[in-house]
Amino acid sequence: MNIVIEHNPSSIRLSDLGVMSWPKWSCQPGKYALVFEERETCYLVKGKVKVYPKGSSEFVEFGAGDLVTIPKGLSCTWDVSLFVDKHYKFDPPTSP
């Protein structure tokens, strides 16, 4: 599982990426089955999540203040323990 977590990136790094201009998504605590059709980069403003890849009991955990890159094609369950509020962006699809 190639989820990359950058804990507490600097405000300069977030500004360089333009994070605060990205769309926002939020969800209540619960379990969500997700499939990432494109690579996603997200910055959690609030929340705490454990991500379980499909068919695995292993997980990756991240939360508020983390910059996370989720690989294209990942099927997983998000186990959200604290309300999530995040900025996100998808990589543009590549041409065939």
TrEMBL record:
The protein's name in its UniProt record: (S)-ureidoglycine aminohydrolase cupin domain-containing protein
Domain (S)-ureidoglycine aminohydrolase cupin, chain residue ranges per copy: 15-88
SUPFAM superfamilies named among the record's database cross-references: RmlC-like cupins
InterPro entries in alphabetical order: RmlC-like_jellyroll (IPR014710), RmlC_Cupin_sf (IPR011051), UGlyAH_Cupin_dom (IPR008579)
Source species of the chain: Arabis nemorensis
Source domain of life: Eukaryota
